[in-house]
């Protein structure tokens, strides 16, 4: 999973891209990068780490020009490492080109073998590089023609930004699996593109609209032009963006992700009711649904777990093992909320089940009399091949266990999930745009909208939590 941001036609392009990426940091914490253009050439800086660490003022000052694209990365294909950090920048027959990609291509390995057979030399293991090679060998006269021709050959999920010295191109894949939206700065009107609208709030831009599936936007000094170069397909937006990935303040259609999650909590309270005294959330991902659940169930919503916001990527483990150390570093129970009470604990999803199991134990140790787990999405049974980091099928607890078995593993008094119908109806109602059938829900249903034969590497995606 990754976040992308771009701006065309503003003298502080790199600074605004830095801020745009900062608001997308939740989409990837592994590496960050910005490429800028001054109309003659491209300038780039990428490093492992958080946006704030990667771009001190001196570095940003070197990214001159009035257009820029940026990327925050959470590796799904190609593994981590600086070689796979983006934007990727290459020189080819038309000049310099920078690319930022969110998503996963499902036929990248086959294409790569073909390209290598024809002499292409790859510098990274990221699937994004395949697109660059296809653009380089295309005979199209303009960048937009080459991009359309290249993307006509790839399959999978992609939201993409391309930057050349004189233009920027944004593309959303034909099924619209990954998100991408267009906005404009309130002052001056420069066009901005981002994975989520939260980027626009920070830089005082207004959201214009989400890109349509299969839409290509070309931005240059002549303005913004929209094209639909691909065969029309049925919309299949990723439903897991609403469940877990997007920030709650992100706008989706006529609503927000917060509203979607709160309403999912309300529906969950009706679908999986339980007698209890208090509702608590696993912060931050479970908070909106817990608020909705409590409201619909007529129960108090209280803080039962607090979260440290200072958990770094590495920490020193104590010599003597402390029980549930990893989870405890991040979460700690609030005794006064829990002692002697029947507790409903809400989270957005169960992946392997290891976190939930530790949380249930933690709540009991802090005095909860009963612990009822409620999950504001259906059981996660299938891996994602379109850009969300999930483990292998065998590691997904719900792929091989019933709810009753999972409840026993968690040592919960009861376990309840939201139904897929409930989730789809709720997202469709709140956003007002996508019909209940317009989602990719392969992680819950196993119904993959892009058929493919899983490759060994795509079957072994690690879960980074
Ligand atoms: P687990 O212990 O594997 O069941 O992890 C469950 C937790 O992981 C929940 O709190 C989810 O919010 C969170 N989660 C769900 N999907 C992902 C993901 N793709 N990457 C990281 N965390 C996730």
Return the structural class. alpha+beta
Helix content: 25-40%
Tell me the distance between the termini.
12 Å
Q: Kindly state the number of beta strands.
A: 23
Radius of gyration: 23 Å
Number of domains: 2
Oligomer state equals: single chain
Structure report:
The chain is of the alpha+beta class and 465 residues long. The protein has 2 domains: 3-233, Aminohydrolase, N-terminal nucleophile (Ntn) domain (Glutamine Phosphoribosylpyrophosphate, subunit 1, domain 1), CATH 3.60.20; 251-311 and 319-445, Rossmann fold (3-Layer(aba) Sandwich), CATH 3.40.50. Helix content is 30%, strand content 25%. The chain contains 18 helices and 23 strands. The strands form 6 sheets. Strands 3-2-4-1-10-9-11 form a 7-stranded antiparallel beta sheet. Strands 5-6-7-8-12-13 form a 6-stranded antiparallel beta sheet, covered by helices on one side. Helix 5 (128-137) packs across helix 6, helix 9 crosses helix 10 and helix 9 packs antiparallel against helix 16 (420-431). The radius of gyration is 23 Å and the shape is globular. The chain starts with a strand and ends in a 6-residue tail after the last helix. It binds adenosine monophosphate. Adenosine monophosphate is lined by residues 244, 282, 285, 347-356, 388-390, 465.
């Amino acid at each position: 999973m990754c976040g992308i941001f771009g701006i065309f036609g503003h003298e502080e392009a790199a600074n605004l891209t830095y801020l745009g990426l900062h608001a997308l940091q939740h989409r990837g914490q592994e590496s960050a990068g910005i490429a800028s253009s001054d109309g003659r050439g491209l300038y780039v800086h990428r490093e492992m780490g958080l946006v704030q660490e990667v771009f001190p003022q001196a570095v940003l000052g070197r990214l001159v020009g009035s257009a820029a694209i940026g990327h925050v990365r959470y590796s799904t294909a190609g593994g981590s490492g600086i070689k796979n950090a983006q934007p990727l920048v290459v020189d080819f027959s038309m000049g310099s080109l920078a690319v930022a990609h969110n998503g996963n291509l499902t036929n990248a390995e086959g294409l790569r073998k073909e390209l290598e057979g024809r002499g292409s030399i790859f510098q990274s293991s990221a699937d994004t590089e395949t697109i660059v090679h296809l653009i380089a060998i295309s005979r199209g006269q303009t960048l937009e023609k080459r991009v359309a021709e290249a993307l006509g050959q790839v399959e999978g999920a992609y939201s993409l930004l391309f930057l050349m010295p004189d233009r920027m191109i944004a593309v959303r894949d034909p099924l619209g699996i990954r998100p991408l939206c267009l906005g404009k700065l309130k002052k001056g009107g420069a066009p901005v593109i981002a994975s989520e609208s939260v980027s626009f709030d920070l830089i005082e831009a207004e959201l214009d609209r989400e890109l349509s599936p299969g839409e290509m936007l070309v931005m240059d000094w002549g303005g913004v032009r929209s094209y639909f170069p691909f065969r029309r397909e049925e919309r299949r937006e990723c439903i897991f963006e609403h469940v877990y990935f997007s920030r709650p303040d992100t706008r989706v259609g006529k609503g927000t992700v917060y509203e979607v999650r709160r309403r999912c909590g309300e529906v969950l309270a009706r679908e999986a009711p339980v007698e209890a005294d208090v509702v608590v959330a696993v912060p931050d991902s479970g908070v909106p649904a817990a608020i909705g659940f409590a409201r619909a169930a007529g129960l108090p919503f209280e803080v039962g777990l607090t979260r440290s916001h200072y958990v770094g990527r590495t920490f020193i483990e104590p010599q003597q093992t402390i029980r549930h150390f990893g989870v405890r570093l991040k979460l700690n129970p609030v005794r006064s909320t829990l002692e002697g009470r029947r507790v409903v604990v809400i989270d957005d999803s169960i992946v392997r089940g290891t976190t939930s199991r530790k949380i249930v134990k933690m709540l009991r140790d802090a005095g909860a009399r009963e612990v009822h787990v409620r999950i504001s999405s259906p059981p996660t049974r299938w891996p994602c091949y379109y850009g969300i980091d999930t483990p292998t099928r065998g590691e997904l607890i719900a792929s091989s266990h019933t709810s009753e078995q999972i409840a026993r593993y968690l040592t919960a008094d009861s376990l309840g999930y939201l139904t897929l119908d409930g989730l789809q109806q709720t997202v469709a109602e709140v956003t007002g745009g996508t019909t209940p059938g317009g989602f990719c829900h392969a992680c819950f249903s196993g119904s993959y909208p892009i058929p493919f034969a899983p490759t060994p590497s795509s079957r072994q995606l690690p879960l980074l939590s």
